[in-house]
Design brief:
This protein is an alpha+beta fold. It contains four helices and two strands. The protein has a two-stranded antiparallel sheet with strand order 1-2. It is elongated and about 80 Å long.
């Protein structure tokens, strides 16, 4: 009780104490708000990356391709807990628009069963 009385006495006499108390309160609120907003953004980012790539990605060392990928996919599908596996073509290209604009692009090729591996097919909006 005595501590509370001293605190109230100190705060009552000095305005700077109220200003510093307000600044600490606002900074604490700002930190809590930023953490909650960024946490939600991070979860959304993780989910969108998972929807595009799946759980595990295996890359080859060469830019020319991944040899014997059919045998590797067959072995991966035999593992317990694996629903499906699919190869994805990833290469580079050059886009030419009406002989005016030439830009480098990344080209991805997905097989028909990609919907079993990730949620990419659910993000497409197909007409018909």
């Amino acid at each position: 009780m005595y501590k509370l009385l001293l605190i109230l006495k100190y705060l009552g006499k000095r305005r700077i104490a109220w200003v510093s108390l307000g600044a600490v309160t606002l900074c604490t609120a700002m930190v809590l708000i930023v953490i909650s907003v960024m946490g939600g953004w991070l979860n959304m980012f993780r989910e969108s990356v998972h929807n595009m790539s799946g759980d595990i990605i295996i890359h080859g060392k060469s830019i020319t391709g991944f040899g014997q990928y059919q045998a590797m996919i067959a072995e991966i599908k035999k593992l317990k807990g694996v629903k499906d596996a699919a190869p994805v073509l990833h290469t580079f290209g050059l886009i030419n628009i009406i002989n005016r604009t030439r830009n480098p692009v990344q080209v991805y090729g997905y097989p028909d069963n990609i919907g079993n591996v990730n949620n990419f097919s659910k993000t497409l909006h197909l007409n018909g």
